[in-house]
Amino acid sequence: MTSERDSETTFEEDWQPNDEVVPYSDDETEDELEDQGPAVEPEQNRINREAEENREPFRKDCTWQVKANDRDFHEQPHFRNTKFFCIKESKYASNAIKTYKYNVFTFLPMNLFEQFKRAANFYFLILLILQSIPQISTLAWYTTFVPLLLVLGITAVKDLVDDVADILLLSSSEPNSLCYVETAELDGVEVIRLMQSYFINWDLQMYYPEKDTPAKARTTTLNEQLGQIHYIFSDKTGTLTQNIMTFKKCCINGQIYGDRRDASQHNHSKIEPVDFSWNTFADGKLAFYDHYLIEQIQSGKEPEVRQFFFLLAVCHTVMVERLDGQLNYQAASPDEGALVNAARNFGFAFLARTQNTITISEMGTERTYSVLAILDFNSDRKRMSIIVRTPEGNIRLYCKGADTVIYERLHQMNPTKQETQDALDIFASETLRTLCLCYKEIEEKEFAEWNKKFMAASLASTNREEALDKVYEEIEKDLILLGATAIEDKLQDGVPETISKLAKADIKIWVLTGDKKETAENIGFACELLTEDTTICYGEDINSLLHTRMENQRNRGGVYAKFAPPVHEPFFPSGGNRALIITGSWLNEILLEKKSKRSKILKLKFPRTEEERRMRTHSKRRLEAKKEQQQKNFVDLACECSAVICCRVTPKQKAMVVDLVKRYKKAITLAIGDGANDVNMIKTAHIGVGISGQEGMQAVMSSDFSFAQFRYLQRLLLVHGRWSYIRMCKFLRYFFYKNFAFTLVHFWYSFFNGYSAQTAYEDWFITLYNVLYSSLPVLLMGLLDQDVSDKLSLRFPGLYIVGQRDLLFNYRKFFVSLLHGILTSMILFFIPLGAYLQTMGQDGEAPSDYQSFAVTVASALIITVNFQIGLDTSYWTFVNAFSIFGSIALYFGIMFDFHSAGIHVLFPSMFQFTGAASNALRQPYLWLTIILTVAVSLLPVVAIRFLSMTIWPSESDKILKHRKRLKAEEQWKRRQNVFRRGVSSRRSGYAFSHQRGYADLISSGRSIRKKRSPLEAIIADGTAEYRRTVES
């Protein structure tokens, strides 16, 4: 019996992921994944096309005048209907845009309706209604009305401000009418989070003066989560690097240039940069210190040196224009721009180009070359070439590309091949990006024969790119090696230091980039995410480990063994520093995210029998369970590594990796990037950070926090994040404590009032307790408190770990606060109760009346909770001290006013404690009772804090104890890279980063003019986006 094949078949078993290519597009269909055979035009398409070409044009009696915004045109009578009497309205929807939510008449009812849709506000509204019925409530209605009115009023003002801020853009001065609109949402009377956000905005140490860019908190709800980050997912280009390439070194004819040396080849540690003033075309921006190279260029003793820079000036797709007499290059990639600018500074300036010519200034002499062909770059070729005819009539091919493809096409007689190979290894140890340069003389007959094939391939209607690549291969062989370039994709300032400190804070950093594997690995070493001691695992290693793990799990019971006790088996032995580098293709392979190819055989869509349906359902569930287990295993393996680099990944894969860690590790994640292809990743993470750099504002507009440089991330997390977490935890613990202490007094009092629901306090005290008497000190502690200074926070990143482990507010801390509040409430109630039993005042009167008891308990409560916040405060300022003593003074001032006879005369039903405060507090006995109550409440806390700091000090306690010795800032030192001769450790990527097509743009004669279609706009529209996923 033969079983029918499934309707879909997977890729071949021996298929291996390609590290060099980006996986399929996020929008790619199943059909597009099939093998592309020769395209044959269907007959019907040909008939339709011919009919369309031969059809007579249809003429309409109309013009191209736009009526969409013509108000008079749309107000004509036949466009309007009568709605009510003489009131008319348009038949059709208008293009009017209403940006406001409220108007003068609807603001109050609509805003109240929106606010009471929230459960908390609606609850207090019902409570207020019940309290307004005297028969069922012992509390006055205003005890709930005043706090509710405060909340509703502040929220209404916020909503009104937000509504007014919604504006309609009528015009924009930006090119192409671009506009970026920034919006923000303030979440309710959360004052602490709001002010913490302002502190981030006002931090001058996160301000970037070069671009006048301050840090910006674009949300107010995530500040404390900044102190709990476990994983950071970072883009590379423009985030870790400046996306600015700099020519650093080169190897010409086996000789390395670029070290600090004079014209006599003597090395100097301190030497002035090369003076390019002899060159009229030099831009003055290149800092180069090898004077011997200049000597070689000017003397002309070695023709290969001039040939080297001539190749850089002629073999490219850069466009040029003159602005105010200065050359302005528009390059398709920063890499290519850096090389052409280097040639310009060394005396070989690219001046102009037409469809068929290119003009170069060679050491001051202008020469024009005929461009016979441009052999374009793509990610498979990893090289580009140009064929030119010299003014003398010679035909020459110039080529630049990755060393892996150039070395395969060199002539056997290349004497400097090994020396250049050694130079490439040295450049790699310095994390520089390299290209190999070569050339070839072409005979007239050889070119004529090749050109026929080239023209035929250029005009091919199908499979044109494949045909061109095949023709290119025929001419790009037997090349003569000139040397290699080394450019630096310069890291942003402070990146290695930031990564080092974040690692010490036990934060794992994953780099997710579209760059090729070698480039990403290169940057990993440059920013010290990877070191020479790091053991790197690649895609095939990971796949093997995961395959073994899945086999072991299957042998123990399979993927359905959910009820078996979990067994934690590490993938690696303990100790050692490991990193994971995986490409997008391997990522799809490992996570079982490969798209499948459709079978050529047409199958029935639905199963024929119930048995077949059951089998298909079981098979689908089994595959889903296997996929889930595989993904979990991958996350476990990756999280055992100190660093993870995912390269050649699409934006969708970036978001997928973040989601996997969120799903299986239950850890707080942060994603940081600068471009549009980072938006998915930024939105998927718990916290998104946008870098305002070279790639536009898409990432910034989608982020929760933004700034201009990656190095500010350490201050955002280790200072603001840690402080915010500590402050919020203290605020919540104290908030629960003070309310438990306040509320539970009613519970104890109920045992003595016959459960009559009589309150232990005056009604107005209940109303103002959380609003005035105990709010300001805790708010200021939540805003200003800090256990150690910002400098010590950065110097000791290990302090950050308490937030990651959530040690300052959890169930244990909550129950400690609950217990503390219960004990305080018992002390507040029972000590005054015992003091009032069988007592007599100095005047012979008994002070043990209900009102005097309420005043005593309330006074002890206010003093206790305000002094308690003083004990919880680590960073004292005048404002903190004023708020604590001011709150106590405010309490007594308001109490004496509310207990006065004057206010009782005006509002007799609302103020019934007439004279209670003055009568009670003139008794020394009651003051002694208050002092005793406060002392018994606070002294145990003081004793426990002292013992804790002495016997079990925290890390911050230890640092504070020795803070005087630690005032001097610790200087971070970069690791020294050691080059081991004879050991090839080349990690550098080839310095190309643009897509195919620029050669066609030049050859077709279409010029790129800044006024009409600047190349920057083309890059912003797609080229830079592609470069980040098909990077050099």
3D structure, described in words:
- The chain is α/β, with parallel strands linked by helices.
- The strands form five sheets. A nine-stranded mixed β-sheet has the order 4-24-23-22-5-17-21-19-18, sandwiched between helices. Strands 7-6-16-15-14-13-12-11-10 form a nine-stranded antiparallel β-sheet, sandwiched between helices. A two-stranded antiparallel ribbon has the order 1-20.
- Helix 12 (444-458) runs antiparallel to helix 13 (464-475).
- The two termini are 53 Å apart.
Quick overview:
Helices cover 44% and strands 13% of the residues. By secondary structure, it is an alpha/beta fold.
- The amount of helix comes to 40-55%
Q: Biggest sheet, open or closed, and with what strands and sense?
A: 9 strands, mixed
Indicate the radius of gyration in whole angstroms: 38 Å
Query: Would you tell me the overall average pLDDT?
Result: 80
Keywords: ATP-binding, Cell membrane, Cell projection, Endoplasmic reticulum, Golgi apparatus, Magnesium, Membrane, Metal-binding, Nucleotide-binding, Translocase, Transmembrane, Transmembrane helix
Region (Disordered): 1-54
Domain P-type ATPase N-terminal: 68-144
Domain P-type ATPase C-terminal: 700-954
Layout: helices, strands, pairs:
Blueprint (H helix, E strand, L loop, with lengths): L7 E2 L33 H12 L16 H4 L5 E5 L2 E4 L16 H10 L2 H13 L10 H24 L25 H12 L13 E2 L11 E6 L6 E12 L2 E3 L33 H9 L3 H12 L4 E5 L2 E5 L3 H12 L2 E6 L3 E6 L2 E11 L7 E7 L5 E7 L1 H4 L10 H13 L3 E10 L1 H15 L5 H12 L4 E12 L3 H10 L3 E5 L4 H10 L8 E3 L1 H17 L22 E6 H7 L6 E2 L11 H30 L3 E5 L3 H15 L2 E6 L5 H6 L2 E5 L6 H4 L3 E3 L4 H39 L12 H11 L2 H9 L5 H6 L5 H4 L6 H26 L13 H23 L5 H21 L2 H6 L9 H5 L3 H28 L3 H7 L36 H6 L11 H13 L5
Parallel strand pairs: 5-17, 5-22, 17-21, 18-19, 19-21, 22-23, 23-24
Antiparallel strand pairs: 1-20, 2-3, 4-24, 6-7, 6-16, 8-9, 10-11, 11-12, 12-13, 13-14, 14-15, 15-16
Helix pairs in contact: 3-5, 4-5, 5-23, 6-22, 6-24, 8-9, 12-13, 14-22, 16-17, 16-18, 18-19, 22-24, 22-27, 22-28, 23-29, 24-29, 27-28, 27-32, 28-29, 28-32
